[in-house]
Amino acid sequence: MTAPLTTPLTSLAVAAPSLESLGLSKARPLVLVDVDEVLGLFMQGFGDFLASRGLEFRIDRFALFQNIYEPGAAEHLDLAKGQALFNEFFRTHCHEIEPAPGAIAGLNRLAKGAEILILSNAPAEAERLRAHWLERHGLPHPLILNVGPKGPIAAGLVGQTPHPTAFVDDLLPNLDSVAEHSPATATFQHVADTRLQPLAPRSERHPRIDDWAELAEAIEAAIRR
Length: 225
Hints:
The structure is a single chain. The chain is α/β, with parallel strands linked by helices. The protein has helices at about 40-50, 80-90, 105-110, 125-135, 150-160, 170-180, 210-225; strands at about 30-35, 55, 70, 115-120, 145, 165-170, 185-190. It has 7 helices and 7 strands. α6 links the parallel β6 (about 165-170) and β7 (about 185-190). α3 (about 105-110) packs parallel to α7 (about 210-225) and α5 packs across α6.
């Protein structure tokens, strides 16, 4: 999970690297997968990082910076300070998060019949540590770090293949963005942290599946169509 995005949607795809340059084949379906709260337990890891800085992370709303508090404080931490902590976490600690339950097995299952591309919204400084995290957990898939809604970059990627495509994210703005820019792509919402699950907004537009075994099965069905 990262902070919700409010950049307006457009109908144009952004320049995207070629699938071949990423080591991906056009001969199989393509699945784009987020990291935070999809493959990895971001909120848990970020909370541990904040605790090491003497701060409290109270998950009482589906938000990020508004959940950071000084010990005993009634008002959340200044948003600019929260952003600085967020950037520091990705620069130094984002490789320490735990995998989401079932995520590794689910993605390995999908990889038997599809090409996997990791599409993560994170600061550019996180690329080395995020790639290391994927490799350490046996997920040697290409990684693209994005900024802003994911629809434009997703459209640039899936437009290169004639095969079915799917996209998984926890945030509705990203799911809506992909649906807007690439309507043929099957979209799925997954929220890994059990504390967030009852708080996370959902939409009938995107199937919400928080169990990775069920999610992998649904994605397989979608890309076989």
